[in-house]
C-alpha cells in the first residue's frame, strides 16, 4: 500500500492527530479507506471535514448536500469560534467518555458530537438572521440524531453529550463551558409562558441520564444533577441535587464533576 499523506496544517494539533489516527485506521482496516478518506483525509482542515459531514448527514429530498455544504462552509469561514468550539468538544469527549479512545471517533461515529456541531451551524444561522434555515437545521438534527436543540439556545465550548439520545434544549436555555450530560436530558420550560423560560447551566456542570431541568432557573457552576432528577429550583454552585423534585443532598464531591463524570451519590457527598 502506498504511503498515505494527510493534507493537514502543522499548526493545528487536534486536526493533525485526527489525520494521523485516520492513516492508522486505514492500515488496520482497509475496508474503511473510502469512508475515512472522504470524511477526513480528503479535507485540508477540520472545518472542511465538519462541513462535509454536516451536509452528508443532514441532506434530504428537501435540501441537497451541495446547498448544505455551502451553508456550513460559509459558517466556518465567517466565524472561527465554530472551529475552536469543535476542537474543544472533541477533547471533551476524548477526556470524559471511556468509550472514546481516539480523536477521530467523535467526528466519524458519535452522534452526540455531530449533533452539537450541526447545532452550532444552526445557531450561527440564527444569529445572522437566517431563521428559517436555522429551523430547518434544527428539524434535521432532531430527525437524524434524536437531539433537539433550539438554534437560539446558547451553548458553550467543551460540551460532551454521552449517547445523546432524546436530548432537548429549549430556546432560551444557556449552557456554560465544559458541561457534560447524558442521554434523555431535558432543559425545558414549565408551561406555555413566553420569554426567558429555560434553564441557565453554569460551567463544569454534570447532568445525569434522564434528568429534567425546567424553568428559568440557574444551575450553579460545578454542580451535579443526579440521574432521573426533576429540577425546578435554583441549584447553588458545587452541590449535588437528586430526587423528584430535586433537593440538595450534599456537596458536588469534586472540583470538576463534568470532567470526573462520577455519578455515584454516597453518604460522603
TrEMBL record:
Source taxon at top rank: Bacteria
Keywords in alphabetical order: Acyltransferase, Amino-acid biosynthesis, Repeat, Transferase
Annotated EC: 2.3.1.30
Annotated metabolic or biological route of this protein: Amino-acid biosynthesis; L-cysteine biosynthesis; L-cysteine from L-serine: step 1/2
Domain Serine acetyltransferase N-terminal span(s) in chain numbering: 14-118
Catalysed reaction equations from the record: L-serine + acetyl-CoA = O-acetyl-L-serine + CoA
One GO term (biological process): cysteine biosynthetic process from serine
Enzyme class: transferase
Signal peptide interval: none
Annotated GO CC locations: cytoplasm
Keyword Protein biosynthesis on entry: no
GO molecular function terms noted in the UniProt entry: serine O-acetyltransferase activity
Pfam families membership: Hexapep, SATase_N
NCBIfam families, sorted: cysE (TIGR01172), EPS_EpsC (NF041874)
Membership in a protein family: Belongs to the transferase hexapeptide repeat family.
Name of the featured protein: Serine acetyltransferase
Organism: Fertoeibacter niger
Amino acid at each position: 500500500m502506498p504511503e498515505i499523506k494527510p493534507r493537514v496544517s502543522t499548526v493545528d494539533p487536534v486536526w493533525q492527530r485526527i489525520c494521523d489516527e485516520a492513516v492508522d485506521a486505514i492500515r488496520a482496516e482497509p475496508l474503511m479507506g473510502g469512508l475515512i478518506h472522504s470524511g477526513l483525509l480528503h479535507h485540508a482542515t477540520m472545518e472542511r471535514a465538519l462541513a462535509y459531514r454536516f451536509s452528508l448527514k443532514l441532506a434530504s429530498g428537501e435540501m441537497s448536500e451541495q446547498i448544505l455544504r455551502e451553508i456550513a462552509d460559509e459558517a466556518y469561514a465567517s466565524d472561527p469560534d465554530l472551529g475552536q468550539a469543535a476542537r474543544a468538544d472533541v477533547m471533551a469527549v476524548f477526556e470524559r467518555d471511556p468509550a472514546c479512545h481516539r480523536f477521530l471517533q467523535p467526528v466519524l461515529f458519535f452522534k452526540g458530537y455531530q449533533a452539537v456541531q450541526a447545532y452550532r451551524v444552526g445557531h450561527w444561522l440564527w444569529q445572522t438572521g437566517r431563521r428559517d434555515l436555522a429551523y430547518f437545521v434544527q428539524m434535521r438534527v432532531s430527525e437524524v440524531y434524536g437531539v433537539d436543540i433550539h438554534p437560539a439556545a446558547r451553548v458553550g465550548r467543551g460540551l460532551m453529550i454521552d449517547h445523546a439520545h432524546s436530548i432537548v434544549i429549549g430556546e432560551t436555555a444557556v449552557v456554560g463551558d465544559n458541561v457534560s450530560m447524558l442521554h434523555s436530558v431535558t432543559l425545558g420550560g414549565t408551561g406555555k409562558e413566553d420569554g426567558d423560560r429555560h434553564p441557565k447551566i453554569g460551567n463544569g456542570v454534570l447532568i445525569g441520564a434522564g434528568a429534567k431541568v425546567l424553568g428559568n432557573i440557574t444551575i450553579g457552576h460545578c454542580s451535579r444533577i443526579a440521574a432521573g432528577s426533576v429540577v425546578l429550583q435554583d441549584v447553588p454552585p458545587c452541590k449535588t441535587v437528586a430526587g423528584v423534585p430535586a433537593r440538595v443532598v450534599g456537596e458536588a464531591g469534586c472540583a470538576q464533576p463534568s470532567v470526573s463524570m462520577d455519578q455515584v451519590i454516597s453518604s460522603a457527598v
